[in-house]
Amino acid sequence: MIVELRVYHCAPTRLPALLERFRSTTLTFFERYGIRQIGFWTTVVGTDNHALTYLLQWDSMAEREERWSAFQSDPDWIAARTESEREKPIVVRVENSFLAPTDFSALR
């Protein structure tokens, strides 16, 4: 198992728009492409309270590349993302890391 850690840093005041896009649109596409989420978080205390952090679970990097590429190139997703940013951009920067559990991790 590989866990992908993704952090979306939003433009000021745009976090609610990102949360709504995930809630009403993105998760439907994730389901369509078999993208498995572990969870989503916003920052309560930390350096950036305009961020959405989430974890995705993959069986392999090959699975990730196949499913993520299909999702990212879906014309309906591209149209929905473009429409959600019609007024102004939502995400300023995305960070992602790939994590492998240790042999003593509760999540393996």
From TrEMBL:
Any idea where the NIPSNAP domain is?
Answer: 3-105
Q: Name one Pfam family in it.
A: NIPSNAP
Return the InterPro entries for the record.
Answer: Dimeric_a/b-barrel, NIPSNAP
This chain belongs to the protein called NIPSNAP family protein
